[in-house]
Amino acid sequence: MREQPSINLESLLPYLGALVALSLVFITNGPLGPAAIHCGGALHRPINLLGCALLIASNRVAHQRAHKHAPDGKCCNNESHNH
Ligand SMILES: [Zn+2]
Question: 21: CA distance to ligand 1 center in Å?
Fold first, then answer.
């Protein structure tokens, strides 16, 4: 029987990172974002890029964990790549 991963702050970091990242992208691009960082504001691009970078980083960490915890070391039964 496989050991269940424990839930602690570190295990939640990729999820929290993705949540913050999507929130940043939403407030810079979504209809409810503040005007100062919405269309054309000086902060629009940096905040939007920060959100994208954080989302990519969160995805990378989650992907590495998928490999780490998989019994065969592969993610999603994908035979075509190794890390
Ligand atoms: Zn993979």
Answer: 21
Query: What are the extents of the domains in the chain?
Result: 22-69
pTM above 0.90, yes or no: no
Task: Give the tens place of pLDDT for each residue, 13-57.
Answer: 899 999 999 999 999 998 888 888 887 778 899 999 999 999 999
pLDDT at 64 over 90: no
> What's the rounded Cα separation, in Å, for the pair 21 and 70?
26
Q: How far apart are CA 24 and CA 58, in angstroms?
A: 14
Residue 12 Cα, ligand 1 centroid: separation in angstroms?
A: 19
Cβ(2)–Cβ(71) below 8 Å: yes
